[in-house]
Amino acid sequence: MTTCLRLLTSVLVAPYYPALVLANQAATLDVVSGGRLILGVGTGWNPEEFDAVGVLARERGARADDHLAAAKALWRRRPANFDGQFTTLRAARLGVPPFTPGGPPVWVGGHSDAALRRALRFGDGWYGTGAGAAEVGDVRHRLHELAAGTGEADRLTLASAAFLTPPGIPAATSPPGRLLGGTDPSAASVIDDPGRLAEAGLTVCTLWLPIAAEHVGEAMEWIATEDVWPGGLADSLRATRPPRRPVPDGPLLDTDLGELEAVPRRLVRGGLAELGDLQA
Questions:
Q1: What digits encode the pLDDT tens for the residues 65-119?
Q2: Residue 210 in contact with residue 218, Cβ under 8 Å?
C-alpha cells in the first residue's frame, strides 16, 4: 500500500457530474488517499459527450461554476445550504466528509478569461497542457490582471502537464502537446526546458510519457540516470514566491479518463521534482 503517492484527475469534466456526485466522489477519494488527492477540473469540449450525458454544451461554463461552488459548500459545511443555477441544497450532508479541511485542492484547466476567473474564484491552481514558457508567462500575467490587485493570483499554483519521449524510445502515439526538450530531446534540452518553465512561473509539472507500456521502465531509468532536472532552483524559488496552499508531498499519479500514468518523484538524484516545487 502506498503512503506518499499523490493522485491527480487530469482532468475531470465538471459539467458531466451532478454537484453532489462530484463532491461525494472527490471527498471519498480524498479520504482513501489520506488527503493526497488533487482535483483537476475542466469544462469539456466534445459535443458528443455532452449529448451522451444529457447536458447542453453551451451551459458547460455555468455548470462548472455551479458544481464547483456547490461542492465547496458541501466540503466546508455540515449541513450545507446552496442556491445555484443548476443545484439547490437544503441541509445537505456528505456521507463521507473530505480528509482535507475544506476539500481537496482544485486545479482549474483552460486558457480563456472565463477559465482563469474560474481558477481565481474556485481553484487552488491553474493547470495547463504542454504549456511553454511564453504561455505560462501570459497566463500568470492575465491572472494578475483579472485579480485586479486582490492578491488572489499569488496564492495559485501554476501547473502543467509536460510530454516526454526519452532519446531512443519511440512514441506510441502523437503527444497532444509540445514535447519537453523538443522533438529530439537530450538531457541538456530537457534540463533547459523545465528551467525556462520555472523562470516563467510554473511551480508544478506532471510528466506524461506517450510511449508503450513495455518501454516505461527504460524511460524511467533514463530519467533517473541522466539527472535531467536542474538542482538548486528549489530554494531560490521558495525564497521569492509567496506561500500557497501546499500541494501534498510525494510522487504524482496523473489520471486521464481512467488511464493512470505515474512518475516517481524521487527517482532522480537530489529529487526529480526539486524545481522549486516543480514536481514531476
A1: 999 999 999 999 999 999 999 999 999 999 999 999 999 999 999 999 999 999 9
A2: no
Give the β-pairing of 106-109 and 80-83. unpaired
| Region class of 97: left (phi > 0), else alpha (psi between -120 and 50), else beta | beta
**To the nearest 10°, the Cα dihedral for 30, 277, 146, 46?**
-50
d(CA 61, CA 66): 9
Per residue in 166-214, pLDDT tens? 988 999 998 888 898 888 888 888 888 888 999 999 999 888 999 999 9
Q: Scanning the structure block, which residue is given the C-alpha cell 491552481? A: 125
CB 109 within 8 A of CB 42: yes
Q: At 7, is the secondary structure helix, strand, or coil?
A: strand
Decide the pairing of beta strands 80-83 and 37-42.
unpaired
DSSP string, 110-124: --SHHHHHHHHHH-S
What is the distance between the alpha carbons of residues 208 and 183, in angstroms, rounded to a whole number?
15
Cis preceding-peptide flag for 79 (omega within 30 of 0): yes
The residue type found at 148 is A
CA distances for 126 relative to 30, 38, 161, 190, 259, angstroms: 20, 12, 11, 23, 21
Handedness of CA 15, 19, 20, 22 (dihedral sign): positive
- Count CB neighbours of 228 within 10 A: 25
Q: What is the pTM of this model?
A: 0.82
